[in-house]
Amino acid sequence: MVVANKTYPAKILVFGEYTILFGGKGVVVPYNQYFGQWSFGEKDHSYFEQSKELFKFIKALKEQNSKTTAMFQFFDLQEFSQDLMEGIYFQSTIPQGLGMGSSGALCAAIWERYFRSSISLSVSETRSALALIEAFYHHSSSGLDPLVSLLQRPLCLHGPDQIHFFDDEAAVQKNLKNMYLVNTKVSRKTAPLVQLFKNKIQDAHFKEIFESKFLPLSNQTVLAWLNHEPGFFELMNQFCTMQMELFPEYFIKEVRELALVGLKEQKFTVKLCGAGGGGVYLICNHDQNDENQLYFKDYLARSYPQVQISRLALGR
Predict the structure, then answer these.
(1) 155, 26 contact by CB (below 8 A)
(2) How confident is the model at residue 120 (pLDDT cuts 50, 70, 90)?
(3) Residues in Cβ contact with 286 at an 8 Å cutoff, skipping those fewer than 6 apart
(4) Is the Cα dihedral 89, 93, 97, 101 positive or negative?
(5) How far is CA 166 from the centre of its chain?
(6) Using 50, 70 and 90 to split pLDDT, how confident is the model at 224?
(7) Nearest one of 164, 115, 108 to 131, comparing CA atoms
(8) 108-126 burial by CB neighbour count: b if 16+ within 10 A, else e?
(9) Is 203 helix (H, G, I), strand (E, B) or coil?
(10) β-bridge partners, 89
(11) From CA 89, how far away is CA 167, in angstroms rounded?
(12) Where are the alpha helices (DSSP H) in the chain?
């Protein structure tokens, strides 16, 4: 039995992989093809597995309450525990381990159902609080995934605390019209991949290239995408080439091969979509004609039939 009609969608990080950790620009959109919602139902194996994790989550929140007088004290943990004992669970179609925000949607749902406060929080404060909650699952979090799932609006990040929401979703959809989502069905965990990046950034040579070349190029590419600039596809070629050079271990074999074909033919580009290492990736079709679309779809169908590809869209 569904508790309420409110759903919490998946999310897609269109731009900003790892660069947002250094104040770079990013674009995150809700992806309503997958979503989660609170339900009551049969106490089957999946319920017990999820409730076990949620009781651990409640314990972590209680421990935070004992250490701080911050926002954790405003969670109604008693009601949360009671609901769990009565059979509530988060029913979700969002694939786990693919970088589509399954934990972010759950954290957004927990926040909206159990956070009790008369204090009005800003978007930035809400994001910071959600980041602390999602850190339970990923050890660290930007807070963007649960924020997008909670507010269900596409956003652009212009800096650490500069969040701009798109008022015209039709304009965002127009920007996405040449984007395709590649689902490799290869599950991975975000935390080890983020840790790998933190290790890489300790290398002086890598850090120099990342900060002086890749980060400005990423920001320039985002602005060109937002403003429909004619040089966007050339920037995408440069961006994706450098991304593969800096993050080779983040591209699994089948995706890397497709990305190299796209760059060689100058017809499409493939980029990370989240942490990498599997999960989902994005294809940017450079001229939107049927030949290009059929080309990379046919390539994946012949070489890697398990991989799914679909046009990226906001609506269900």
Answers:
(1) no
(2) confident
(3) 178, 233, 236, 266, 267, 268, 269, 292
(4) negative
(5) 17
(6) very high
(7) 108
(8) bbbbebbbeeeeeeeeeeb
(9) coil
(10) 39
(11) 33
(12) 45-67, 77-86, 102-114, 123-138, 144-151, 169-176, 190-200, 204-209, 215-226, 232-246, 253-265, 290-303
Two tokens at 145?
A: 């995934």
User: Can you give the pTM of this predicted structure?
Assistant: 0.88
Q: Which CATH number does 8-169 carry?
A: 3.30.230.10
The residue to which tokens 């294809």 are assigned: 283
Beta bridge partners of 282: 181, 271
Q: Kindly state the DSSP code that residue 214 receives in the 8-state scheme.
A: I
Secondary structure letter of residue 121 according to DSSP: P
CATH class of segment(s) 174-311: alpha beta
Please state, in angstroms and rounded to a whole number, the distance separating the CA atoms of residues 130 and 123: 10
27 φ, ψ (degrees, to nearest 5): -130, 125
Check the CA dihedral 270-273-279-283 and report its sign: negative
Domain locations in the chain as residue ranges: 8-169, 174-311
State the average pLDDT over residues 144-165. 89
Q: How many whole angstroms from its chain centre is CA 311?
A: 17
Angstrom distance (rounded) from CA 71 to CA 133: 11
Q: In the structure encoding, which two tokens stand for residue 101, read together?
A: 């925000």
